[in-house]
Amino acid sequence: MGQGLHISFLGVDGIGKTSLATHLAQLLREHGLPVRLISWRRALEQNEATPWPGHALQQLWLETYRLLYGGSSCNGTPVVLPRDYPHWRDGDYEDRLGRSEVSGSRHAGPTAAALVELAGNVVLFPEIVRPALQRGEIVIQETFPYKHVLKQLLIAERIPSDPVHGELIDHVMSFMTTMFGTAAFQPDIGVLMDGPISLAYEWRMDESGHVGVLEDFSAAGERGKLSFHRLQEQTVDAFRRVAKDWNWLVHTVDDTGLATNMSRGLELITAHPALRAAMADRHVGRD
Ligand SMILES: Nc1ncnc2c1ncn2[C@@H]1O[C@H](COP(=O)(O)OP(=O)(O)O)[C@@H](O)[C@H]1O
Ligand SMILES: [Mg+2]
User: Fold this and answer.
1) Interior CA angle at 235 toward 147 and 118, to 5°?
2) Fewer Cβ close by (within 10 Å): the C or N end of the chain?
3) Closest ligand to residue 200's CA
4) From the alpha carbon of 208, which atom of ligand 1 is closest?
5) pLDDT at 38 over 90
6) What is the C-alpha to C-alpha distance for residues 132 and 142, in angstroms, rounded to an integer?
7) What is the pLDDT of residues 172-215, one digit of tens each?
C-alpha cells in the first residue's frame, strides 16, 4: 500500500458522482493535496501513445463495445464497429450507439463484454491507480468499475437465453463481486451515492436530453424511461448490498439542490479519519 489515498464512488447514472468527485478534487487541491482523477476513459487519453498499458487499454475498451453490441442490428443493418481504436474515437461511435435503436442482441456478447471489462481493470489498477498512490497522490475515481461490469451482466441477463447461460452469468456475477471486494481493487474510502432514481433521470435529461450507452437496457433492445428505471433499480439493489459488505460510506441525495447536496457529501467524505489525517498532515507541512 502506498502513501496516497484512493477514493471511489458508486451510484446510479445521473445521481451526481461526477459532480461530487469534481468538487472533492477542487477542495482537496485547495488544501494543497496532490489529487488525480482516474478512470479508464481518462487513461485512454493520457496513455494514448504508450504500447503498454495504453494500447491494451484502448483495444480492450473498444472490444467491450463490440461485444456489448455483438450480433445486433440497427434499422435492419448489422452494427459494425471499427477494428481499431483511433477510428472508433474519431468516428464518435460511443455517442452514436447511445442514440441508436438496436435489435437482435445476443447474450454471449454482453457476458463476454463483462469479462473484458474485468480484464481492463486488472490492467488499470496495478498500472495506473497503484503507481499514483505510491507517488502519494489522492486518487479520485468517480465510478468504481464494479458498476460497468454489473450493468453488462444485467444486460446479458435481460436478453432471452437458456438456463445454462443464466447459470454462467450468475457465476460471473459472483466472481466479479468477489474480485472487486479484494484489496487489489477496494478503495481506502468508498462512497455510495444513494437517492431516488427519478431525480437521477430528471437531472440526466436536463443535462443532455438522452441517456448514455450503458445507462438503460438499449443494448438489449429496450429504450426509454422505463428501461432506464428498470436497469438502475437493479444496479441500486446490488450497490446497497456491496456497499454494506465493503463498509462504504453512504451519501443520500435529495431534491434540495445541487449546492446543498454537494456540501453534505463533502462534509461526509472529509470527516473520514484517513482523509482528515491527510488534510491535517498537509497543514502541518505548510507551517
Ligand atoms: N443534487 C443535485 N441537484 C440537482 N442537479 C444535480 C444534483 N446532482 C447532480 N446534478 C446534475 O445532474 C447531472 C448528472 O450529474 P453527474 O454528476 O454527471 O452524475 P453521474 O456522474 O452520477 O452520472 C448533472 O447535470 C449535474 O449538474
Ligand atoms: Mg459521471
Assistant:
1) 25
2) C
3) 1
4) 25
5) yes
6) 16
7) 999 999 999 999 999 999 999 999 999 999 999 999 998 988 99
Q: Which ligand is nearest to the CA of 194?
A: 1
Q: Quick one: 5-286 is in which CATH superfamily?
A: P-loop containing nucleotide triphosphate hydrolases (3.40.50.300)
Q: Where are the alpha helices (DSSP H) in 74-223?
A: 85-90, 93-99, 108-124, 130-134, 146-158, 163-180, 197-208
Domain residue ranges in the chain? 5-286
Q: Taking the CB of residue 69, how many other CB atoms lie within 10 A of it?
A: 27
DSSP letters, 130-173, are: HHHHHTT-EEEESS-THHHHHHHHHHHHHS---HHHHHHHHHHH
CB atoms within 10 A of CB 264: 16
Q: Any idea what the Cα angle at residue 173 is, between residues 172 and 175, rounded to 5°?
A: 60
Q: Is 14 in the pocket of ligand 1 (CB under 6 A)?
A: yes
Which atom of ligand 1 lies nearest, measured to the CA of 11? 22
